[in-house]
Amino acid sequence: MRDPLYLYSRLILGTALVLGLMIVGWPTAVAEEGQRVEVFNADFERPEGGNPPVGWAMWGPQQDKVPEHFVTDRSEARSGKASLRIFHPAKTRGYIVTDPQHAIRPAEGMAYEVRFWAKADRPRKARFGITAYRSIRPFVDAPSPGAWPIEVTPEWQAYRFEFFEGLDFFADESQYLLLTFSAVTDTAEEGTLWVDDIEVWVRPSPQPRVINPATLKYPPVNHRLRPGKSLAITIDSTTSWGPTTRQVTGISFHRVAGWTGQPFDREGRYRLTSSQEEAIRQLRLPMSRFYAVGDEPFPVEEALDRIAWLCNRVGIPQEWMVIELEEQSAARRIAPEGWASAVEHVKKKGYRFRFWEVANEPYSSLWGKGGAFSSAEDYMEHFKAVAKAIRAVDPSAQVGVAIHPRNVRWGNLVLRQTAGDYDFVVGHYYSFPRIFQQPFEEVVITENMRTLDLILKIQALIREYNGSRPVYQLDTEWGLHAGGPAGERADYVDRNANIWGVLHRAVRMIYYAREGMLRGASGWQMLNRTAGQGFAILFSDAPESRSMLYWLYYYFNRHLGSELVAFEGEAPFYKAPSDPEGAFAAPLTPLVVTREPNGNRLWIILANGSWETAVPMQLRFRGFRPARYIGTLLTDHDLDGKPLLPPGKTFARPFQARLVEGELRGELPAHSVVFLTVEGVNSPVTR
């Protein structure tokens, strides 16, 4: 799972590790010195002084914006009479950026070089980066050109970083660039940093540009509905939209012998209780994934044996179990020979594993983890060697490349440079809203639409780079991934998995199943402990309890037939305040209708993404005579309710509607997911 860069809350979406050089004293100028860009109060000599200095702004959680921590220091200077002093108290998350009113406005095809001097109270790692926005009125995040740890000492040292438009970011997307400084890389530490004599230079970029996705044409997200005042649709049983994408409702495990001690402990003993085992079986999972399979305390062959045994025991198809071998934080890599050995073992034992994901989030160095891959180029070289080794053993194997879809080097460039070597792409399409600032509807509807558009954009890039070669996306982690108001990690933010997370995932899976933009998707995560309820389905220290997310998947997988049924009609649409042009406006009440071929039963899944408004519902039928229905409703009225439910409890209840003159009429309650089984005339009521 992604460990977000909370140090820079707005760098989460696109931090890039690009060409950055830490040096003592600037070397001779680069080949072309270029033109100097004015940075307001870059030497901190303005007579106004100020805390923070004029032209600079405090950033981070509101409680950490303390003016006395960001001051004009007239007792320390590398040159002149003043510098910027940043004090970081332990366990805080404040930092400083150039005032957005004085942001750098980048241009296409240019290279940018940032130079500055810095020192610290003692040797440590500090951080410099670029915070990027598409807009500052309102603030709309954009991918960042970069963030870099810097080694600082009590002596003034010079630092220089360079990044390239068209390779590290796109100027039409990241339109406002803010220089960003923090005194530490580890927010648990206390530290002081001084900065002085900042310069920014720009020159024509010598680097070739990758394709700008904004220049690609691809079909928009298909909502299948028109704007209207209520949900009024006609379901046409005479028309099929093709097969349902049923593999998008999976749930990923973490490790075979993970830190929770389940499903196996570090001695390899099976530790799921019979209740947990049956709970997983009842989910009817179409897909799952294990990572770090080659990093367990027992040989990789034994880990694979245990996964195969578990699949058979709980009913997960081996054909749809994705296997990733390397250490979960990308701290260590496994040689191509090690991957080949694992594939050979699978063939020898007759296991049906076919999906091999090469590294879990190899870009984790972006937030201070990892270390196995110093750059995207390093990962690309490793990936190509591993893919070759896997195919030498099993030519039919499917090999997946891991990308950061919001980062140009770790996404776009990786797709281009490894094209021809990957069969599928793993994007980990988490959504990163400001869940304590944004409206419920924006988190549930708009953030999903942004992510779905990103998926389509990445697929367009895949097609561009791979030509006629069929390449698909198969996601192995996703979910609602919001930090807490005091910088809490997403694992410990209940909103990610209570009614917020339930509606967010329901809307996403409705689109995934209906529109088929991914071949499969497995959400994060199956097991955790009750201290962290932000993602988990089941809990090792509460084996009899189930989470709200558990019941979402339980009912979803019982209400997806293999064939999509067409419908047409209208529904209320939602347009977020952050989306004034309505680029991501979408129905508040998305739905999917499915059946089995030649069957006389329809399954309908609907969601209402409004927190306050119930929506009238009218379902008409063409080529189908409804005789009866069974309805189930999932809802909860506490925005900050605990995701974990008491033992033996669900949060499902019957949904009441009316069959009137061949129509199903009712009302979709606010913030709810509804599951309907509609039986035709002469059909028994079953699920």
What features would you describe in this structure?
- The protein is α/β, with parallel strands linked by helices.
- It has two domains: 20-204, Jelly Rolls, CATH 2.60.120; 244-555, Glycosidases (TIM Barrel, Alpha-Beta Barrel), CATH 3.20.20.
- It is 17% helix and 29% strand.
- It has eight helices and 36 strands.
- Strands 14, 15, 26, 29, 30, 31, 32, 33, 34, 35 and 36 form an eleven-stranded mixed beta sheet that branches. The protein has an eight-stranded parallel beta sheet with strand order 16-23-22-21-20-19-18-17, covered by helices on one side. Strands 1, 2, 4, 5, 7, 11 and 13 form a seven-stranded antiparallel beta sheet that branches.
- The protein is globular, with a radius of gyration of 26 Å.
- The two termini are 34 Å apart.
- 52% of the residues are buried.
Helix content: 10-25%
- Evaluate the radius of gyration: 26 Å
Number of strands: 36
Portion in strands: 25-35%
CATH superfamily label of the largest domain? Glycosidases
Total domains, how many? Answer: 2
Helix count? Answer: 8
Low-pLDDT residue spans:
3-31
CATH topology of the largest domain: TIM Barrel
CATH-defined architecture of the largest domain: Alpha-Beta Barrel
Helix/strand structural class: alpha/beta
The CA-CA distance between the termini, in Å, is: 34 Å
Overall residue-averaged pLDDT value: 94
> So what's the CATH class of the largest domain?
Alpha Beta
Overall, the morphology is: globular
